[in-house]
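Consider this one:
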Amino acid sequence: MVKFFNKLIKIYFSLMMVLVLWRHQLIILMMTRYIFLKACIGMSASTQPSSPPSENATEMKAKCKYCGSLIQYWNRTSSMGGHLRTCKKNPNNDLNKRRKTTTTPTR
């Protein structure tokens, strides 16, 4: 009976360690996501001052620094990435660079 309880205690502590590690990774993921969001939307302290928090804190929207449109980011950052790739006022956009290039006549 003692061996059973010893095994049970070992399993319990190993599960607790897994939960602690999982929670630590989740916190790191959330911090990385926050830093990524600030970098994508241009809210870095080096480029411009951060805006005050909105009145409705549950509203998960970001404002594009190039065109000013509101982008929802409650479902990760795919919508923000899609907007930045298609934003016509974004100077780093590859589509804008392709439009500005001139073609040379072929011989």
About this structure: The mean pLDDT is 64. The CA atoms of residues 10 and 16 lie 10 Å apart. The radius of gyration is 24 Å. Helices lie at 2-41, 78-86, 94-100.
